[in-house]
């Protein structure tokens, strides 16, 4: 594989990871917290409905999990493509 093909594969994997993370974030924050909130209002979590929980706490927790997942996965991609910092 040439350097240009390897570079394209690396950036393709990077952009795919970013897009997947953004879709998950948008689904949780906008989808569950705003759009689907009326459907989730009958489910109780911690004394409040699930839609409110996603809007106030769930989206933040998912966002933090996405940050750690992205960092872990990018370290793997860096090692796979030989651009790690080690």
Automatic annotation (TrEMBL):
Stretches assigned to the Sodium symporter small subunit domain: 8-84
Ranges annotated as spanning the membrane: 17-40, 52-72
Keyword terms, alphabetized: Membrane, Plasmid, Transmembrane, Transmembrane helix
The keyword Ribonucleoprotein is annotated on this UniProt entry: no
Organism, scientific name: Tritonibacter mobilis F1926
The UniProt record lists the keyword Oxidoreductase: no
Protein name per the record: Sodium symporter small subunit domain-containing protein
């Amino acid at each position: 594989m040439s350097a240009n093909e390897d570079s394209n594969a690396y950036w393709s994997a990077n952009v795919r990871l970013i897009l997947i993370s953004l879709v998950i974030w948008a689904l949780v924050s906008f989808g569950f917290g705003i759009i689907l909130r009326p459907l989730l209002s009958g489910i109780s979590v911690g004394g409040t409905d699930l839609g409110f929980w996603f809007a106030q706490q769930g989206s933040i927790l998912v966002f933090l999990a996405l940050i750690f997942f992205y960092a872990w996965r990018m370290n793997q991609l860096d090692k796979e493509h030989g651009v790690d910092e080690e």
